[in-house]
Fold this sequence. Notes:
The protein is α+β, with helices and mostly antiparallel strands and about 160 residues long. It has a domain at about 20-40 and about 85-160: Hotdog Thioesterase (Thiol Ester Dehydrase, Chain A, Roll), CATH 3.10.129. Helix content is about 20%, strand content about 35%. It has helices at about 5, 45-55, 65-70, 80-85, 90-95; strands at about 35, 40, 100-110, 120-130, 135-145, 150-160. Strands 1, 2, 3, 4, 5 and 6 form a 6-stranded antiparallel sheet that branches. A hairpin with a 4-residue loop joins strand 5 and strand 6 (about 150-160). The protein is elongated. The two termini are about 40 Å apart. Belongs to the enoyl-CoA hydratase/isomerase family. InterPro entries: HotDog_dom_sf, MaoC-like_dom, MCH/BMMD. This is Dehydratase.
Amino acid sequence: MSERTTAGSADFDPDDFLVVPARTFEDLRVGEVFRAPSRTLTDAHAAAFQTVSADNHPVHYDAEWARKRGHPAPVVHGLQVLAFTAPGATLFPHFIGEVFISFLELSCTFLAEVHSGDTLYPALTVTALEPQGDNGIVVTAATIHNQRGELVLSGRHKYLLRRTA
Length: 165
């Protein structure tokens, strides 16, 4: 190895190694969409979430119990579905990393059951930009569709950002 390789490059700065160019609050636009990669849920995902959440209701793991109560299969935990709207599942935090202050709030409505084998398509769409002095609030619509194009979750997130980097 050359000395340059072992000592590092004077031209490389890890702080400049960005996935996408950094943006400010003012660079965001209403209507911008930040998608997450699609995910096909498996029984292993549901079992892992059940372990972490300690939610042991049989609707989530007992196929016979679920069928007897009108569900075609065990139902994936709603909070697990909601987790797919996490901003970190998209490129959004890479765009706002230097100006992000906090995740302020979220709300959602579960519109349809999700089952193992379903593929989910999460997205965050900027719906409002509210300047507030040196900071600003970004409001996004959080949506998840399944492989049949059905909207299974609809919600809203709010983030607080600095208006300058």
